[in-house]
Amino acid sequence: MNRIVRVVVVSLLLATVGVPDVLGQDQPKVYAIWGNPDNGRKIYAAKGCGRCHAINGVGPTIGPDLGRPATRPQTITQLAGAMWNHAPDMRKLAQEKGLNWAGFKESELRDLIAYLYFLRMLDQPGDVRRGERLFDDKRCSACHALAGRGGRLASDLSQWKHYSSPILWAEIMWRHAVDMEARMRGLGLAWPDFQDNEMVDLIAFIQSRTGAR
């Protein structure tokens, strides 16, 4: 996704939410305005977060990987608790390494959090070799052709090179499932089940053979 699409997607997912009025009916309502992930990417670099933290395995291992932490907070409040717990050790380590403690002003922390949450919404990179094995093991090749090999009972997967969005892939697969189930039952084939990162690996293989980005 390009930069504009990324910002729009996160803006939609991290929509403005109202904070309940717990002080009385006469108090004005307060709203939490979520940050801009594109600005957060710049703040991540400017604040030196990458000196200690990796993102999805890329970078140093001094601190936890911010793209795939061992214990991932599911809500913003849980993230606040994790940052609170992490602060003393982080401050001590920064002093030992002679690093300036990163302060945040105005919307900087909101933008940084939006950026980190955006990263976690993306798939991990697919493994093309595993995807190629899955193409045969899941019996996709029994009906579908790809780059000159495979069956001719269903559509040639080369035409899917235009669908690079995971959302579009999900829509296509969902629509395809109805006809596919009937055909597979007629051929005596078992319904393929995908676990963990297998669908991502399969898509990576298809895209590698179709020249898709």
Explain the overall architecture.
This protein has 213 residues and is mostly helical. The chain has two domains: 3-120, Cytochrome Bc1 Complex, Chain D, domain 2, CATH 1.10.760; 128-210. The protein is built from seven helices and four strands. A two-stranded antiparallel ribbon has the order 1-2. A two-stranded antiparallel ribbon has the order 3-4. The radius of gyration is 23 Å and the shape is elongated.
Count all strands and give the number.
4
Q: Which term fits the overall shape?
A: elongated
Distance between the termini: 10 Å
What is the CATH class name of the largest domain? Mainly Alpha
The average pLDDT value, as a whole number, equals: 75
Give the DSSP E fraction (strand runs of 2 or more residues): under 5%
Helical content stands at 40-55%
Counting helices, strands and paired strands, the structural category is mainly alpha
Could you list the spans in which at least 5 consecutive residues all have pLDDT below 50?
Answer: 1-24
Please state the second-level CATH architecture of the largest domain: Orthogonal Bundle
